[in-house]
Specification:
Chain A: This is Carbohydrate ABC transporter membrane protein 2 (CUT1 family). Chain A: It comes from Breoghania corrubedonensis. The complex is a heterodimer of chains A (278) and B (292). Chain A has 278 residues and is mainly alpha-helical. Chain A contains 14 helices and four strands. In chain A, α2 packs across α13, α4 packs across α7 and α10 crosses α14. The longest helix of chain A has 34 residues. The two termini of chain A are 26 Å apart. Chain B has a two-stranded antiparallel sheet with strand order 1-2. Chain B has a single domain, classed as MetI-like fold. Classes of the chains: A mainly alpha (278), B mainly alpha (292).
Chain lengths: 278, 292
């Protein structure tokens, strides 16, 4: 095959990166502009920085609370979904359960549901049915962690299944022969081999939960409200405070960026959604 | 091996969580879909009206138009993502300086919340104050007005979706390409196959399951898009970008037609499951024939 010069690829990627980064750059541009400047003819190059939006956001105690909620909910949900998904995939991959392929497909149908119409039943269930005495799930972090499972747990199961199917059964069988308990086999034999897949699942479910908006907007009021819903509070009938919104958006990007950076190297080996392995 | 009891035990928490938060709400939606129910209308009661909602839906031009718009949106978005994602994945298979760095940059859109993506694209494309219409106007004298032109609004929603989700396609295709054996490629080259032949007869059949799996997840998620489009165009101009997710949202929220909105959701969910099931069967096919 013809080998092109590596510098050509470099040039190509610089061009692609420019297109990829432009909307993110633009978000930053909006966040460092005073509101009046937004309605004049835009300029690509930033000439001055106006940090007031960031100062306003940092001084807002409510938003800091939302940030903590977002962190707790998405981390809790990612850990829960990855753990449950891992156990479920172990069961689907190693046991001869009747109807297991139907169960596998059924799990993903939970992610297909159009979200808008499911808000009402979830609201009713969380206020009236799933309650212990006066404690209801509405507007609680644990409630949101559980609700986010509807779209993240199926995703986790579908991402982890090929990883688990790819691990030879003989490995577990050998361990069982040596008298290991199922718990030991799962934690000490299978788990270490699944690390790349688990890392990718953890990060993607984390990001999906971190970015979710519609469910959080309906099912939380204050005490479990997340950053993405905090954003929409700046879209008001009298006008939208785009500068503040953009500044909050930049803040929502930073934790996602850090978490994403941590598992970069696993992402290629671990991302095998569905039945990728031939 | 161990008894199936252990298997069910491991599966139980998943079944419980998805049952409580997925299946129970689903049956509620099905039940509501057989009623006429608008809690904020003159008569706020739930009135059983049999299959009336479903009969109305078949002849509802707004719903059918929304379904049509969704099909073109999903088609153009997913096809572009696949083609672009494949080209980018192939470009990442080569060695060049700073590869890891560029891969990180390329995955950045993935971590952005749909509602933020929608806001940024709205600010970039709003006529007169957005940067894109301004540049198009001063460079080419082209007038991009997503507030008036249905075609412009449609294209911008597709471009936004492509920008946001192509990285996911690229990553999963890289994962598939990395795991391919080298022998068939070498053999094909020895046999004198051209680039195009190698793609159609060697690469594509081998990565077909991965491609289908990628189409599967993109299709599923593109069909339920709400936040991004709602933020960018609000479904307009007219109903040009009122994709089913947005259509259901508008039926349920501003208009509070819970009964009818539920009926639409049940049908849309059903159609999604059928399409995804067909893809899933396609994904499994190579695996099964490979074994047999």
């Amino acid at each position: 095959m013809k080998r092109r010069h590596p510098w050509l690829y470099l040039l190509f990627w610089i061009a692609v990166s420019f297109l990829t980064l432009f909307p993110i750059y633009w978000l930053f541009v909006i966040s460092v502009k005073p509101a009046v400047d937004l309605f004049s003819t835009p300029d690509i190059i930033l000439k001055s920085f106006y940090w007031q939006n960031y100062i306003d956001v940092l001084n807002d105690r409510t938003l800091r609370g939302y940030m903590v909620n977002s962190l707790v909910i998405s981390s809790g949900n990612a850990v829960l979904c990855t753990t449950l998904g891992f156990l479920a995939c172990y069961a689907l991959s190693r046991f001869d359960l009747p109807g297991k392929e139907s169960i596998f497909f059924w799990t993903i149908t939970n992610r297909m549901a159009p979200p808008a119409v499911f808000l009402l039943p979830l609201f009713l269930l969380m206020t009236q049915v799933y309650r212990i005495g006066d404690f209801t799930l509405l507007d609680t972090r644990i409630g949101m962690i559980l609700v986010y499972c509807t779209f993240n747990l199926p995703f986790a199961i579908w991402t982890l299944r090929p990883t688990l199917d790819g691990i030879p059964k003989e490995l577990d069988e050998a361990a069982y022969m040596d008298g290991a308990s199922p718990f030991k086999v799962i934690t000490e034999v299978v788990f270490p081999l699944c690390r790349p897949g688990l890392a990718v699942t953890l990060i993607l479910t984390w990001v999906f939960a971190w970015n979710e908006y519609l469910l959080a907007a309906t099912l939380t009021n204050f005490s479990a409200r997340t950053l993405t819903t905090g954003l929409s509070e700046y879209v008001t009938t009298t006008g939208t405070e785009w500068g503040i919104m953009a500044a909050i958006s930049v803040f929502t990007l930073i934790p996602a960026l850090i978490v994403f950076g941590l598992v970069q190297r696993h992402i290629v080996t671990g991302l095998t959604f569905g039945a990728v392995k031939g | 091996m161990h008894s199936n009891r252990l298997g069910w035990l491991l599966l139980a928490p998943t079944l419980l969580v998805l049952g409580l938060f997925g299946v129970v709400p689903f049956f509620y939606v099905v039940w509501v879909s057989f009623h006429q129910w608008n809690p904020f209308a003159a008569n706020p009661d739930m009135i059983f009206n049999g299959a009336e909602n479903f009969r109305r839906l078949v002849f509802d031009e707004a719903f059918l138009a929304s379904l049509g718009a969704t099909v073109s949106f999903v088609f153009f978005a997913v096809i572009s993502e696949l083609v672009l994602g494949y080209m980018l994945a192939q470009a990442f298979m080569k060695d060049f300086p700073g590869k890891g760095f560029f891969r990180t940059i390329h995955t950045l859109p993935l971590i952005m919340a749909p509602i933020i993506v929608g806001s940024v694209w709205k600010l970039m494309t709003t006529p007169s104050i957005g940067i894109i219409p301004n540049l198009l106007d001063s460079w080419f004298g082209f007038d991009l007005n997503i507030g008036q032109s249905a075609a412009a609004a449609f294209i911008v929603t597709v471009v936004m979706d492509v920008w946001h989700w192509t990285p996911l396609v690229t990553l999963s295709l890289i994962a598939a390409l990395v795991s391919l054996p080298q022998d068939p490629f070498e053999q094909a080259q020895i046999d004198g196959a051209g680039k195009r032949q190698i793609f159609w007869h060697v690469t594509l059949p081998m990565i077909a399951p991965a491609v289908l799996a990628t189409v599967f997840i993109r299709l599923m998620d593109a069909l339920r898009t709400v936040d991004e489009v709602l933020m960018l165009t609000g479904g307009g101009p007219g109903a040009a970008t009122r994709y089913v997710g947005v259509h259901i949202f508008k039926e349920v929220f501003p208009r509070t037609n819970y009964g009818y909105g539920s009926a639409i959701s049940v049908i849309v969910l059903y159609l999604t499951i059928v399409v995804c099931w067909l893809l899933y069967v396609g994904m499994l096919a190579p695996r099964n024939t490979g074994k047999g």
